[in-house]
Amino acid sequence: CARIEPPPGGPPDSAPPRLVSTSPDSMAVLPDFDGEVEFTFNEVVSEGGTASQGTGFGDLERLVVLSPTTRVPEVRWRRTRITVRPREGWEPNRVYRVELLPGISDLRNNRAEGRPVVVTFTTGAPVPVDSLRGRVWDWTTGRPATGALIEASLLPDSLLYRFVADSAGRFVLAPLPAGTWLVTASLDPDRDRRRTGREPFDSVSARTAEPSLLELWTFPHDTTGPRIAELAVTDSLSVRLRTSQYLDPRQSFDSSTVSVRLLPDSTPIPVVALLREEQFDSLFRRGAAPPADSVATPTDTVRRPAADTSARRRPGALEPDTARPSRATLSDRLNLRLGAPLTPGASYFVLVRGLRNANGVSADAGGVLQVPTARTEPGAQPADSVPPRPAADSVPPPARK
Questions:
Q1: What's the pLDDT score for residue 144?
Q2: Which residues contact 25 (CB under 8 A, 6 or more apart)?
Q3: Contact partners, residue 197, CB within 8 Å, separation at least 6
Q4: Are 122 and 96 in contact (CB under 8 A)?
Q5: Is residue 62 classed as helix, strand or coil in its secondary structure?
Q6: What are 163's strand-pairing partners?
Q7: Helix, coil or strand: residue 12
Q8: Who's near 173: CB < 8 A, 6+ residues apart?
Q9: Which of 75-79, 156-160, 247-251, 347-351 has the lowest mean pLDDT?
Q10: Cα–Cα distance between 314 and 35 in angstroms, integer?
């Protein structure tokens, strides 16, 4: 009658690891420092499934940002401690910043969230007190760039400091030495804290003496001009163009930059306009819904007051982020309006001269449009047809009571 079951014990541990101390003290001046930066926790932490091997892809290496250096730091797991040091050693007269990002977990996979932990100290240089703040947007989607990599280079000596944006794309570069900084933000999909040539980025120059909220808009920086990737018929007078790259939102078009010719004899077709989707919809689309602010509220509608959620907000929780992008989202679509109807089954050559991408590189882009042949679905009736009325003798007599 014996049963195999786990031995009795206390309640399961669901608390994440808690940081107890850091070493050295933040804002300390240590001219002869040759040790390690330590983060000590109240329990044994997990090394993760991928160990640190100097490649930047270890689970702990992804959580550590060391500046100023361009190399992957030495990150070591020592049970209840995590130690960090640069592979090239500590340089004299520099301001070092070691950031431990949220994500440390214990052996039971209890993950610690919250704010990052930063240790700043100098090896003889003056203690910095300045800062820069800002936000990073993904210009291709119009959304905040969560976890974007921020690189700040002090001019002219080009010391590179790295930071990571939060879930709302916000960042605080602090503390920084006074001076002029080149701030670069890039999307970091693989989270290796390194910027490659193909990752979307944006940069701006800023001075700590003139603090202001920085805005960076990441987008792909293509070095070749865009091409026409797809042409599609939307109605008898309209054609939608999809390009291979995101387009410069400041570029405008006129009929002289666009040519449409009927193949194979190259008969020119008049062009009315080449517009972006929002402009095209406002001019040529029919039956579009009116703007939200133009719709009147019915007189018999009673709107409930907004619920007050401040009392239910958790203690210490951040205020809700209500920021909206100040730029329109990049687009790779254009709409062409013709002055003559398209012929079903015919082919047209469409050419746009000087089409410019978001990086400012322009090129002539052309493509062939194949108009589908009009066909009637089986059983479909013409739009103006009226079904015949039933014959008089086909009406059933009324039922007898």
A1: 95
A2: 121
A3: none
A4: yes
A5: helix
A6: 150
A7: coil
A8: 131, 132, 133, 150, 152, 161, 163, 181, 183
A9: 156-160
A10: 40
What region, left, alpha or beta, does residue 318 occupy, with left being phi > 0 and alpha being psi -120 to 50 degrees?
beta
CA–CA separation, 6 and 14 (whole Å): 19
Phi, psi of 263, deg, nearest 5: -90, 150
Q: CA dihedral defined by 263, 264, 267, 273, rounded to 10 degrees? A: 20
The pTM of the full predicted model, rounded to 2 decimals, is 0.73
pLDDT digits (tens, 9 = 90+) for 32-72: 899 999 999 999 999 888 878 777 788 898 899 999 888 88
Mean pLDDT score of the chain, rounded to an integer? Answer: 83
* CA 236, 242, 248, 249 torsion-angle sign: positive
Determine which helix (DSSP H) or strand (DSSP E) holds 239, and give its type and residue range: strand 238-243
Of 320, 294, 298, nearest to 309 (Cα)?
Answer: 320
CB atoms under 10 Å from CB of 77, counted, come to: 18
Query: pLDDT value at position 154?
Result: 87
- Whether 47 contacts 60, CB under 8 Å: yes
pLDDT value at residue 99: 93
User: For tokens 């079904």, what's the residue?
Assistant: 387
Angle CA(333)–CA(243)–CA(286) in degrees, nearest 5?
25
Amino acid identity, residue 105? S
Q: Quote the CA–CA distance of 254 and 222 in Å, as a whole number.
A: 25
Considering only residues 319 and 346, tell me which one the structure prediction assigns the higher pLDDT.
Answer: 346
Beta-strand ranges (E) seen in 17-125 are: 19-23, 28-29, 37-41, 64-67, 74-78, 81-85, 95-100, 117-122
Give CA–CA dist 83/85, Å, rounded: 7
Give, in order, the Cα–Cα distances in Å from 1 to each of 6, 7, 8, 71, 312.
16, 17, 19, 62, 52
Burial of 21 (0-12, 13-18, 19+ CB in 10 A): exposed
CA count, 13 A, side-chain hemisphere, 274: 21
Quick check: 367 and 231 in contact, CB under 8 A?
yes
Residues contacting residue 200 through CB under 8 Å, at least 6 positions apart? 138, 139, 140, 186, 187, 218, 219, 220, 221
Structure tokens at 151: 């690189």
DSSP 111: B
Q: Position 121: which residue type? A: F
Would you state the structure tokens that stand for residue 33, as one six-digit string?
Answer: 């420092």
| Edge-first strand listing for the sheet containing 362-370 | 267-269, 258-263, 347-356, 362-370
